[in-house]
Design a protein that fits this description.
434 residues; Alpha-Beta Plaits; 14 helices; 15% strand
Length: 434
């Protein structure tokens, strides 16, 4: 079954319409009491109560888990049928007699437009059309019943004798069939136009809902300001760009062997906790979540938009991840989790960013030696027996970005002898986080 992205908005609109309906009905009560001779208001009070119950029932069914779309059509039909009865049925409590046909002289058909307008709230053009057809049918049936009553006059005399025409129209039982037909036809035209307007509004609302969902999805990978920029841009990565950024790799050491000794539910639960923590730290330090890779993550700082603190943010994110991982492990009830540890590698340098893939499926990618070095730094933590490994280029860039934070930064980092990474011809300077 197709998910309705407007369901929440439709329910909110129905709730608003129900409240407005209740207030309107409450305001009618004193008006009827003042304008209608007693005891005629008694029937009106009862009918107003039924209208209120129908409104409450429509709202209650719409928000209930067992509510179905056809229920709303049934309530709309009941609304227009009840309104037809209210407008055309002679009130037995009125203290004076008048022929039933005389009620058509009051021009009360305009009240049908009020209920029709209320149907536009729920963004359902077919419901509006159904309401138009149901109202036209109900009113037509009511008028036909009045036409069959004794004393009904509906044919005007032949000829151009104005006196005879006026005499016929002046009869209390006269029904102008032409006016009644105009009412129904105009109402059907209005319902069709309103349905088209609702359809257009629904398309716009669906488009906005899609954009909001796409922006929300972007927010799962990018910082809030970056997600906003991407949502407002058209094909922002069509042309590849080269820029400096910090790349971070994090991975749970010994997770594979640990998961082999534990059930899938326990494994997935721990993995979700770790992934959630890593994502929070990335976003907290203005980073971009590039991808989850098994029990690890790749993140970038400075993509797609560079900032003045990319290297610094990456180092702070690494420290935050390692601290939060320790706290997370302490809260776990699973056995042997103390054997797990988090390894993080960070490198700063030039990368190429852009779309890769085919026309059918594109993916934002960050490519270059900087990515490979960051990944190998994370792997090298096992060889050096540390939790975090940061390249000297990253520390240098961070010092240039925020020299005032150098002392606090070096509280976590310890300079280490240069190391030889796989695939590199020269050694690379590094700082460790024990």
């Amino acid at each position: 079954m197709e998910e309705n992205p407007l369901k929440v908005e439709e329910l909110a609109a129905q709730r608003t319409a129900f409240k407005a309906r209740t207030v309107a009905l409450a305001l009618i009560v004193p008006l009827v009491t003042v304008l209608t001779p007693w005891p005629a208001p008694i029937l009106t009070y009862l009918l107003l109560l039924v209208f209120a119950l129908l409104g409450w029932g429509a709202w209650w069914v719409a928000q209930s888990p067992w509510g179905r779309p056809w229920h709303q059509y049934a309530f709309v039909s009941a609304d227009f049928a009840l309104l037809t009865f209210t407008l055309l049925f002679p009130n037995p409590f009125v203290p004076f007699d008048y022929p039933p046909q005389f009620v058509l002289r009051f021009g009360s058909f305009i009240y049908f437009f009020v209920i029709l307008a209320g149907l536009a709230y729920v963004y359902q053009p077919r419901l509006v059309l159904w309401g138009g057809v149901t109202a036209a049918l109900s009113w037509t049936i009511g008028v036909l019943l009045l036409l069959r009553l004794p004393g009904t006059v509906w044919r005007l005399p032949d000829g151009m004798n104005m006196e005879r025409v006026i005499d016929a129209v002046a009869q209390p039982g006269f029904i102008d069939v032409g006016v009644r037909m105009q009412e129904v036809i105009v109402f059907l035209i209005a319902s069709g136009l309103l349905a088209l307007a609702v359809k257009r509004s629904r398309m716009i609302a669906l488009r906005q809902a899609k954009l909001a969902r796409e922006k929300e999805n972007l927010g799962r990978y990018f910082p809030e300001k970056t997600a906003q920029m991407l949502a407002e841009s058209t094909d922002p990565f069509s042309a590849p760009a080269e820029q400096n950024c910090a790349v971070l790799f994090a991975d749970i050491v010994s997770f594979t062997s640990w998961s082999e000794k534990h059930g899938p539910q326990e494994t997935i639960a721990l993995l979700r906790d770790v992934h959630g923590m890593l994502a929070r730290e990335v976003f907290r330090h203005n980073g971009t979540l590039d991808k989850f890779m098994g029990d690890g993550v790749m993140a970038t700082f400075g993509t797609p938009i560079t900032t003045q603190r990319d290297a610094t943010n990456a180092i702070n994110a690494m420290v935050g991840m390692l601290q939060e991982f320790e706290q997370l492990i302490k809260r776990q009830t699973s056995t042997s989790v103390e054997d797990l540890r988090l390894a993080v590698g960070v490198h700063y340098g030039p990368v190429v960013i852009g779309n890769v893939g085919s026309a059918e499926r594109l993916e934002f990618a960050v490519l270059g030696d900087t990515v490979n070095i960051a990944s190998r730094l994370e792997n090298a933590t096992r060889m050096l027996g540390c939790r975090g490994l940061v390249s000297a280029e990253t520390v240098l860039a961070s010092n240039e970005e925020s020299p005032e934070d150098h002392a606090s930064r070096m509280k976590w980092l310890t300079e280490h002898d240069p190391v030889q990474l796989r695939g590199l011809s020269n050694e690379i300077g590094v700082f460790t986080l024990p």
